[in-house]
Amino acid sequence: MVLLSISFFYYITHSFSFVQTLWNVDDHYALLQFKKSLTINKSASEDPFAHPKVASWTQKGVGRSNCCSWDGVECDKDTGHVVGLYLRSSCLFGSLNSNSSLFQLVHLQKLDLSDNHFNFSEIPSRLVLC
């Protein structure tokens, strides 16, 4: 019985030790800066079910300071770098320009900003990902 209890304790403590995903502090602040550069406006998206994913992005609160747990953000599980950003129909309104903090996300591989309104900004070529 004691061996079973010790084994169970080991399993529980080690099973949950990896739940907290690594995150990169530079990517975290780049995302917050990106959020700050735009406004949330329901009319910026045509989808009637549009949902402002960035509204939940914050640096405060239990579990919310980890940008890898934010809605629309995908991180590499080994490095914690942001590799995917899925903000389709997120009610984002504003301009994207050449000094956007998105350029600080150097490990970004996937990006979906469709169905938002960027004031007819010309998307810089280095922001277009295939």
From TrEMBL:
Keyword annotations of the record: Glycoprotein, Leucine-rich repeat, Membrane, Receptor, Repeat, Signal, Transmembrane, Transmembrane helix
Membrane-protein topology: Single-pass type I membrane protein
Leucine-rich repeat-containing N-terminal plant-type domain residues: 26-76
Gene3D superfamilies from the UniProt entry: Ribonuclease Inhibitor (3.80.10.10)
GO cellular component, one term: membrane
Main location: membrane
Signal peptide start and end residues: 1-15
Localization (cell): Membrane
Recorded superkingdom: Eukaryota
Record's protein name: Putative leucine-rich repeat-containing, plant-type, leucine-rich repeat domain, L
